[in-house]
Structures
1.
Amino acid sequence: MTVTTTHEALVGGTVAHHPPGRAGFFGSVRSELTKIRSVRSTYWTLLALIGTCVGLGALFSWGQTERVLRIKAHAGDFQGIGQARTNALLASIHAQAASVSLFGLLIGQLVIIVLGALTITSEYSTGMIRTSLASMPRRGTFFAAKGVVFGAVALVVGEVTSFLAFFAGQAILSSQHVSTTLSAPDVLRTVVGGGLFLAVCGLLSFGLGAILRHTASVIATGVGLMFVVWILSNFLPSPPSGWFGQADIDKWIPFNAGSSIWQNQMNGVNPFSPWVGFGVFCAYAAAAIIAGLLLFQRRDA
Amino acid sequence: MIEARGLTKRFGDTLAVDHLSFAVEPGRITGFLGPNGAGKTTTMRLILGLDHPTGGSVTVNGQRLRQLAWPMREVGALLDAKAVHGGRSAYNHLLCLAQTNSLPKRRVDEVLELVGLTAVVRKRTKGFSLGMGQRLGIAAALLGDPSILMFDEPVNGLDPEGILWIRNLMKALAAEGRTVFVSSHLMSEMENTAEHLIVIGRGRLIADCSTAEFIAANSQQSVRVSTPQRAELAAAATRAGATVRDDDGKLVVLGMSTAQVGDLAFENGIRLHELAPAQASLEEAFMELTASSVEFHAGLPLPDRKAEVA
């Protein structure tokens, strides 16, 4: 190791002193891009996201083709189902072709929650936050740059994932002629919506990360909010119609609201229209991010 | 130039920093001295804006850190060498910091060369030794070629070569007219490097003066004497008003100069084999001054410490 401690080496160098302007948002954006692309966990998580969503979507699509085969096999049976019923079943499978191929998002959301959490909690777990804030002490700028960079990466990868899952699923469904295309009504919205849903899941987790600061607690909270609450909601009692009941609560459940943009009324829930439901989901994420920002500015790093 | 005015930080019931006011001037190394838990790191975190003060304020070059146009071009700090993402390479770590302040990429290469890490720039930092981590932290501090540098316990855990390197680096930086503020609980380290000292204990300012002044003002004058007539010299010195203690077969006379002890021996016909001024070290001065302000007394099993602990 040769070490230079001569004056010439220390002075000046290539640093032009005090250029006009000030350290701001765009420098921080470049910095955050470097950060997110320079750690392996980013790539592993994104690969896991694509693998989970495409793989599970393909599996579920294959399951649907098996169902179609069974329905067709029994269509003419004496004890089987009538032709009209057969056609209705096949039509409903066809109508859900896009949503079915995106089924993996149910698990994929958990993966993007991990990445969203890590984006901010890894700064705390490694101590990097102290170095980061010493070089960029304007916390609002730092937070915004981090959020924008993560949001952009999550959106791009979310859309890629959603489209890959869609095409893989349709390729499988087409073997039984129950596939759909992007030009069919609502399908493009469903597939684009899948990517948007993933990105907002990640941003919700990013907000939780700023609030909680510990990877494990953010993941637990994110999974609880998106997954456990959703499962529990299915066990709520259904009171007599006209009462304030399951459906009224159901639609506000984060997963139900958010997935209304890519689920095609699969379980008879989702009373929100696709964009309204997604808007509600975005509001949840915004609330988490704003709370996270306020705490981030106030707390000691 | 770093200026603190009535700087205060409270954590729950603990007053970590208690109305600190001081100025760190450019062109010299200012040592920031205090026992562990005295509030040195908290003070540095307050300077960097990582902690929000409970009261008072601290400015760097006349402004709060968050108001500086280009923070890295004015202040560089090494607080904790482990404050890096271990999965990132040394180069990318420095690059992401440089980008926040629009510093050119070649500056990253420059500082890597300066600290001698060019061989490991692509390696992930989790495999770095303590010394390499420390060098990386210093590279980060130097990135913006700042006029103010802060180092928190920079020699902790380093080998002698590393300690010498950091010491020379700090001296060179100060010689260039920069403000160098370095904390340590090692008095010997400060004695070797710092020209000026800010001493704190329990969050409060104890001293703000030059290192020489600090030693002179806070240590008693003492003389080491070796003589075959110990009892006689001890008696004579005591009569003359000095205090005498035995130190490993030699006498240490407190409160007299070497000339006075020599004259005393001559007047009493006492033979001397050795007569030397015992220079009080910064360590001793420091211990004397902060004895009451150490937050955690270790329960050392030494007889003379037991009384103190109890």
2.
Amino acid sequence: MIDPLLEIDEFDSAKNEDSPEKLERRRPRTRYRLKDDTGFDEVPKKYRRFYRRWKGKGDSLAPNEVICPVCRVVIRSTRELRPGDRVYCMPCFSRLTVVRAESGRLEARVVY
Amino acid sequence: MSIEGVEIHARDHEGFLEEVHSFEFWFQSVVGYLADHPYGVDPKGSIPDLSESDRNALIATLSTYCVGEVAALEGASGMIGFAPNRHSKIFLATQVVDEARHLEVMLHRLSELGVPDAEAEFEARANPNLLAFRDRLREFVEAKDWEASLFAQNVILESMEFAAFHLHMQTADARTAEMLAGVLKDERRHMGFGENDLGRHLERFPQARTRLREIKKELDALVLATFEDSQRALGTPASERGGIGRLYLESVARLGFDK
């Protein structure tokens, strides 16, 4: 017998549908090897590969990158980012959560 | 793509805060961009020739920046005495050193521009709105008012300076731009500390927003006018000058002062 309190998803047909969001969450994340090759020099050497400067017009964000809304540095992760992920901006001491903006783009929001 | 071993973003928040507020973190950060750069510039770089009008505009602007740096130097050093915890005290101690360096490199650049006694003259040349702001910040610090001091100095003044220096770098001569680039890297820490520390404080004491909103109303005009005037003197087009306030306005919106 299935306990409905513990296995509520089993009874929720809507939740069982393979929505695009659910499928995306199930897909394994792409992993990235970060190199200290961006010239970013504002944090201790061992952390420099996790950040780079936004180059302005013509620059774009990779799936493992978001912009810090506080100081505008590009934050990099060793894995593809998804909504709900936490990232840290070491140059400005911020803790951030990744969200999907209305535009569909991934953005970071400050969590104090 | 292969898997990287260490993920900085997986660490706990307490450990992150402990590290970024440490003297060790500050030292390992600044050594990356200050080593072998006396007065914040490459010693092999040349001193550019400027027209008389460009030189005069730059002298006036750097004089105003000097007032901002002295205000932050005195403010940060005074705040150490009543900062609520060790993290803040150590961070402010590093900010004091940063501000002292900023003042020194700007005075050095003023002397390169031919100002005979830059230290004696910068206040007389500076923007009166910033002098009024500095006086108000002093009052907050003398009253040992942590919320107001942190807000005025590390949120309002630092985010304005960050935006103004960033904009100025786009049009400045190469030597001034290089000096400002180093200052800007320090400002990232100062304004980030301000927003995040105040943000955590307001989560615990949301009622403080009411009083800080009043302070914001009073100080907004002074700082916005200061940097607007400086950018006008430097010849920054009006369409770009609006960008100075944007960073600050976004910061205060995140802190909930726009509601």
